[in-house]
Write a structure and sequence with these properties.
This protein has 352 residues and is of the alpha+beta class. Among the domains are: 105-146, no CATH class; 255-350, no CATH class. The chain has 15 helices and seven strands. The strands form two sheets. The protein has a five-stranded antiparallel sheet with strand order 4-6-7-3-5. A hairpin with an 8-residue loop joins β6 and β7 (318-321). It starts with a helix and ends with a helix.
Length: 352
């Protein structure tokens, strides 16, 4: 009996140990399964991206692009997670216009702009005359877009555009840019190896998106290429061509900083401020409403219409913006950017 009991007890201990081992193995199995399950979405992204690229190539073939062009292009395309991340995590910090201008138009940039004006004076004079765009605005856009060509971005444009299209949030936009980029490549304006730009696909010293390149880029030096990456003649002519085609008036400036006098009814500010065409009023009307020059004197008596813009609010900088400012808005729809270009152009004009 005692042997039986001892055997039973030993058997029970063995059973308990066995059950513990089985439980541990089960937990390990569940953990391993959970880990492998966690990896599935990552693997599926690669598969889905590969399928997406195949479909994109098929579309490109339907559009008539040759295999000779497409083979190296699609061999080079890679998923660029950093580009998608950059698109999803753009800065949300609220800047004031004063802070923005201090970083975008510092004294060193004004000095550099004046040096560039001098260095390229003959070329800029020629382009100013041809396109009717003042050279100070050409240089101001050049300086604000790429720091006079020094910051163009080194992302492979085609991979960036495909990655952003694959992400899906603005697929139609980035697919359109991708096919425009293929046209640029097929026309021989840039090599595949040198086809670089910002993470969003903006290219060269003028930071044109591919569709803007097709609409506005110019072969300024007559060599058969529209080289906005490294040829000053092409860069300046392309900038001027954009502004000219979008309605720039070479006899006018962009706007002026103003003040609201005590006679201006601040409660009506929303009624009068903004870029809508119907809110563009004559200078005499703005004068009657109580808008003055920044030095508190009366506005000039000229037959020009202007928009009242408040990039921050009524306590911040206030401007009367002329038609040329509206043209700058077609380059970049940010009020801050438009004001920074005008501000830099004004400082170039003043020489400091």
């Amino acid at each position: 009996m005692s042997l039986f009991i001892r055997g039973f007890r030993n058997t029970s201990k063995r059973s308990t140990v066995t059950m513990l081992i089985v439980s541990i193995l089960a937990l390990l199995s569940i953990s391993t399964f959970a880990q492998s399950d966690h990896l599935v979405p990552e693997a599926s992204v690669d598969v889905k991206f590969a399928d997406y690229v195949k479909q994109l190539r098929a579309e490109a073939e339907i559009k008539g692009f040759s295999a000779e062009l497409l083979d190296p292009v699609f061999a080079s395309i890679k998923m660029r997670e950093n580009v998608v991340k950059a698109d999803k995590n753009q800065p949300e910090t609220k800047l004031t216009l004063d802070k923005y201008l201090s970083t975008r138009v510092p004294d060193w940039k004004v000095k550099k702009a004046l040096e560039q004006m001098q260095e390229h004076s003959q070329l800029l004079n020629k382009i100013e005359k041809k396109y009717g765009v003042q050279k100070r605005f050409i240089v101001a856009l050049w300086g604000n877009e790429s720091n006079f060509g020094h910051i163009q971005g080194n992302h492979p444009v085609l991979s960036s555009l495909v990655s952003l299209a694959f992400d899906g949030r603005r697929e139609a936009l980035f697919k359109k840019q991708f096919f425009a980029a293929l046209i640029i490549l097929s026309e021989g304006h840039v090599s595949l190896e040198d086809f670089t730009g910002s993470w969003a696909g903006a290219m060269g010293q003028s930071q044109f998106m591919p569709t803007s390149f097709l609409s506005y880029a110019v072969d300024g030096d007559g060599d058969g290429k529209k080289d906005i990456w490294s040829t000053p003649e092409d860069v300046f002519a392309s900038i001027a061509n954009f502004l000219s085609k979008e309605g720039w008036n070479g006899q006018q400036t962009w706007g002026r900083q103003v003040k609201l006098s005590k006679s201006f009814d601040i409660n009506t500010i929303n009624k009068f401020s903004g870029l809508a065409k119907e809110k563009m009023l004559t200078m005499s009307t703005w004068d009657t409403l109580g808008v003055t020059r920044f030095d508190d004197t009366a506005l000039p008596n000229v037959n020009i219409k202007a928009s009242l813009i408040l990039p921050d609010d009524a306590s911040g900088r206030i401007y009367l913006a002329y038609n040329n400012f509206h043209t700058l808005m077609r380059w970049n729809r940010s009020l801050y950017f438009g004001v920074s270009v005008g501000y830099l152009a004004d400082r170039i004009s003043k020489g400091s």
